[in-house]
Amino acid sequence: MRAIHFGAGNIGRGFIGLLLSQAGYKVTFVDVNQALVQQLNERQQYEVQYANAAQERTIVKHVDAIVGTELTQVSEAIIAADIVTTAVGVNILKRIAPAIAEGIRQRMKLHLPPLTVIACENAIRATSLLKQEIAALLPEEISANLERFARFPDAAVDRIVPLQHHDDPLFVTVEPFYEWTIESKHWPRQLPFIHNAHYVEQLDPYIERKLFTVNTGHIAAAYLGQLKGYTTIQEAMQDAELEMEVRTSLLETGAALIAHYGLKRSEHEAYIELIIERFKNPYITDEIARVGRSPIRKLSPQDRLVRPAMLAQKYGIEAHTLAKVIAAAFLFHAEDDQETQELQHYLQKHGIDAAIERFTGLAANEPLHGKVKLQYEQLKAQGKK
Ligand SMILES: NC(=O)c1ccc[n+]([C@@H]2O[C@H](COP(=O)([O-])OP(=O)(O)OC[C@H]3O[C@@H](n4cnc5c(N)ncnc54)[C@H](O)[C@@H]3O)[C@@H](O)[C@H]2O)c1
Ligand SMILES: O=P(O)(O)OC[C@@H](O)[C@@H](O)[C@H](O)[C@H](O)CO
């Protein structure tokens, strides 16, 4: 079986490429980083190390790669593929859609079975977003019946893979934990289930539980941690007061998730503690700059902060810590992150009210808007910036 995976970065090599290979797929990566592509083609394998006491390693073999700008080569590879996966960043999906659309068009002409496409990104229903981008590029007679030519199961992906600083550009250190949850209803009959993935009928509770626990907790540790002068998540999580704030933010999102999805409280609280332990993994150095990057995406209404805070509000749950983390996002700095610069530029020019409204979608008369503003002013007054 053949897989085409867009994005040979940390999640591409350290999670999805690894799992697909373990499931019996020959993996071809597509990436715009030419040096990475060259290395993958020269060596046809790479090493993954697990961040635990044993520091076990495994080799992913029989891989190759294509430069993302080589559209013909990419679409030809898609003709021969059973599955296409992505881990490029949700904002990049529109850029890879043309090659996938072309691959689907060619497959249709050849009467090939439907292609399976899964976007493995941190966003609610990223595969559906990719499907929309692809459909918009295809002629009406194909896009109207797209499910006949390609299947688009939504998925949730969870494994912490920090920035890598090794001499070998292909070597990747990953936490041992992983969860790849795939919605089964769009899975094509002819393709066997990927044995190391978890199939569920309804993805929403899983993706929201993941995003609003792992990613909300992560961003709380990052934004509140930076205000206290820390540069990594592990340093920040050694601060007992900060750990408590992270836990409180997760009890807030947890209460909202429990109310909304009827999750079992004891199970969800155990899940929160598992996530906090993962953040503390002493064998990982995860930079706050990575976890905090792209604050505009992270502040958007459907992402890890505003959506659970609004859900909490809907169920009458106090979301004081979430409001503080949202406020802290407006104080986040990361030198080489474009979204951080854009947000700061807007904030300085238009002020906090306009910035809250623009980036979170919270109108000035929304109670959460007022809470965020208050927290922002308090953080500033405490000399946090
Ligand atoms: N790192 C994590 O812990 C983690 C965990 C779960 C999910 N994710 C999600 O996975 C996705 C990727 O994250 P990452 O940490 O691997 O990032 P990364 O920056 O390490 O990897 C992204 C890769 O995509 C490539 N890329 C960019 N534009 C491209 C294009 N047009 N065509 C092909 N390749 C392109 C980049 O060159 C890079 O190699 C993001 O959506 C992220 O939110 C990350
Ligand atoms: O990838 P982002 O930028 O959406 O979020 C940063 C981290 O929280 C994220 O990459 C986590 O490490 C990951 O989602 C764990 O599964």
TrEMBL record:
Segment forming the signal sequence: none
UniProt keyword annotation of Calcium present: no
One Pfam family, short name: Mannitol_dh_C
Gene3D superfamilies reported in the protein's UniProt record: N-(1-d-carboxylethyl)-l-norvaline Dehydrogenase, domain 2 (1.10.1040.10), NAD(P)-binding Rossmann-like Domain (3.40.50.720)
Catalytic activity of the protein: D-mannitol 1-phosphate + NAD(+) = beta-D-fructose 6-phosphate + NADH + H(+)
Enzyme Commission number, as recorded: 1.1.1.17
NCBIfam families per UniProt: PRK02318.1-2 (NF002646), PRK02318.1-3 (NF002647), PRK02318.2-1 (NF002649), PRK02318.2-5 (NF002652)
Mannitol dehydrogenase C-terminal domain segment(s): 203-379
Family: Belongs to the mannitol dehydrogenase family.
InterPro entries linked: 6-PGluconate_DH-like_C_sf (IPR008927), 6PGD_dom2 (IPR013328), Mannitol_1_phos_5_DH (IPR023028), Mannitol_DH (IPR000669), Mannitol_DH_C (IPR013118), Mannitol_DH_N (IPR013131), NAD(P)-bd_dom_sf (IPR036291)
The protein's name: Mannitol-1-phosphate 5-dehydrogenase
